[in-house]
Amino acid sequence: PSEEMADEMADDLDFMGFGALPAQPSIENNGNKYKNAKKKKKISKKIKTKMKKYSFGDKNAPEDLKQLKDKKLKRTLMEREKDIFKASRSSAQAEILLSQDAGYIETEGMEKTWRFKQKELKKEVDVRTKEKMFNLDMPFGPYCCDYTREGRYLLIGGRKGHVSMIEWQKFHLRTEFHVQETIRDVKFLHNHTMFAVAQKKTVCLYDNSGIELHNLSNHTDVNRLEYLPYHFLLASVGKTGYLKYQDTSTGAIVSQHRSRLGECRVMQQNTRNAVICLGHSNGTVTMWAPSMSNFLIKMLCHRGPVQALAVSPDGNHMATSGLDGRVKIWDLRTYKEMHSYYSVRPASTIHISQRGLLGLGFGSHINIWKDAFQKKQKDPYIVHEMPGHIVQNIRFCPYEDILGVASTKGFQSLVVPGAGEPNFDSMEANPFATQKQQREAIVSQLLDKLSPDMISLESSFIGTVDKAPMAVKFVEKLEDERKRQKEKEMKKKPKNKQRGRNSSSKRWKRKRKNIIDDKVQERRLKIARIHAERKISRSEEKRKKKGLPKDALAR
Question: Among residues 89, 459, 499, 508, which one has the fewest Cβ atoms lying within 10 Å of its Cβ?
Fold first, then answer.
């Protein structure tokens, strides 16, 4: 190979951590061993700067480690420092594999991005992207939709009972059936092999062939479903106002909480800390965890009922819409309003993409906003209209620049440049996983399953150390126990005990009091006859004592 090719190979190998290739001795440089020593230093500095992004915690200085007398502790700490260094270096070197970048619509001069329609975009994109833009007309609407975590499968459910699951990139229909019952929501579970359908009375679980696996009779009159993939929890809320968590791996109900705020039709999870957010008819948004019987946070967001809400993937921002016609952006780190937008009609559905694009659906219109969480934008990023349709549900497809829109007359797939994350983590969600890899992923997910008690507002509290002394901890523990005892005593109500009221025979008689059948009627007639005979006998005895005849007419 030529000298230039050798230099390029040496740079690449050095950047990936294998070191530079020994170069040929140069006649001009009088036999130097390495021609690109300066380049090597520059590349190593780049790696060091990238390593700072992936390093965590305070490092133990080598001088401090040398002063340790315990050899075993010294060895473990040194090995730990080496592992941390290797992990940060490999993460920095792996950035060379992330070659794809997220692209957006770029304009020139006075052009506006929202003026570009889907027909114009379809002419400019590649053939593979054109195939992803399609429209499905179905008569059993209004519809709702959901994507799997890797964005490979699409689940559609119609209000009149139609359910279908599609491998949408290949246009392969996996299953389709009709439940002949009202459907309010659909949701994928850990992968495409199982999904939940909120039907008229209960929630049913189906497999990818359309066979009913379970009927969750405890979840009644459900309006919304959410699934927590790291905890294997299915959350539901509905007309009764109860938020229920069910473990899909064991089948047990983990907890159920009463919101005390009436029927709930809005629910969304915070993917960062697995906290469930509920929107209520009085304009408030409450946040819940399965380990707490009461809400963690309660925010007054609107002056009217909350119509929709969404939480950003990083968990720092939340978008809500209400019947007051406003869309508000909230900072979940301070729980304060950042800014708000006015919509022509109240937004009925909201969703946020992996790259932070905010999608709003109201009436037959869809608005997509770019950088909506950084500052208040003047114009939307993309505008789309569906004449004759009413938008019911919108969902951004993971790892794709696609927006799925479920309406009253079917489903439509739109192209939104810059919506999806271009670089995926195969250990997290692999869009190209084989059947064997999917089976192995399910096993690893079950082994790494998190406990419901680990769900809290602060996701970083796990692994922290309480540095308070033992005496302080003991005093705090005693105070907590006293408070609990006082609360129990305050909640206790004096029982009004009455003897003879709660015997087994009395309870049975009370239950049978309002039941009327042939035996009861005969018994009642017999009792009435006996009472009448006794009454007549008593009156005769009284007249006999007074010396009067048995009857007033007797002579």
Answer: 499
Looking at residue 142, what DSSP letter applies?
S
**Where would I find the H helices in 343-469?**
435-447
- Distance between CA atoms of residues 551 and 455, nearest Å: 86
Quote the pLDDT of residue 23: 44
pLDDT of residue 25: 43
Residue keyed to tokens 């929630």: 203
Question: Would you call the peptide bond into 142 cis, given omega within 30 degrees of 0 as the criterion?
Answer: yes
- Residue 411's φ and ψ, nearest 5 degrees, are -135, 145
The pLDDT tens digits for 246-297 are: 999 999 999 999 999 999 999 999 999 999 999 999 999 999 999 998 999 9
What burial class does residue 554 get, using C-beta atoms within 10 Å of its C-beta: 0-12 exposed, 13-18 middle, 19+ buried?
A: exposed
Q: Do 290 and 255 contact (CB within 8 A), yes or no?
A: yes
Q: Is residue 208 helix, strand or coil?
A: coil
Q: How far is CA 238 from the centre of its chain?
A: 16
User: Could you tell me where the DSSP H helices lie in 109-246?
Assistant: 118-124, 127-131
Half-sphere exposure (Cβ direction) of 72: Cα atoms closer than 13 Å: 0
H/E segment holding residue 246:
strand 242-247
Q: How far apart are CA 170 and CA 408, in angstroms?
A: 25
Element (H, E) at 120: helix 118-124
Question: Is there a contact between 10 and 18 (Cβ–Cβ < 8 Å)?
Answer: no
Question: Which tokens go with 244?
Answer: 């229920």
Please enumerate in sequence order all residues whose Cβ is within 8 A of that of 228, keeping only pairs 6 or more positions apart, or say none.
234, 235, 269, 274, 455
* Residue 201 tokens, joined: 């009375």
CA-atom Rg of the chain in angstroms: 35
Q: What are phi and psi of 284, to 5 degrees?
A: -100, 155
Residues 349 and 342: beta-carbon distance below 8 Å? no
Tokens of 110: 């006075």
Question: Residue 52 has which token pair?
Answer: 């700072």
CB 254 within 8 A of CB 291: no
- Tell me the C-alpha distance between 115 and 137, whole Å: 26
Q: Is 145 helix (H, G, I), strand (E, B) or coil?
A: strand
N-terminal to C-terminal alpha carbon distance within the chain: 148
Alpha-carbon gap, residue 422 to 99, rounded angstroms: 9
Query: CA-CA distance, 207 to 197, in Å (whole number)?
Result: 11
Contact assessment for residue 352 and residue 358, using Cβ atoms and an 8 Å cutoff: yes
* 3-state DSSP percent of the chain in helix, strand and coil, to 5: 30, 30, 45
Between the alpha carbon of residue 58 and those of residues 52, 62, 63, 81, the distances in Å are 12, 13, 14, 10
Q: How far apart are CA 401 and CA 413, in angstroms?
A: 10
Which of the residues in the chain have pLDDT under 50? 1-2, 5-6, 9-10, 12-43
419 torsion bin: left (phi>0), alpha (psi -120 to 50), beta (else): alpha
CA distance 36 to 42: 10
Residue 104 CA, distance from chain mean position: 27
As a whole number of angstroms, the distance between CA 97 and CA 260 comes to 51
| Calculated CA dihedral for residues 347, 352, 357, 358, nearest 10 degrees | 10
Tell me how far the alpha carbon of residue 305 is from its chain's centroid: 21
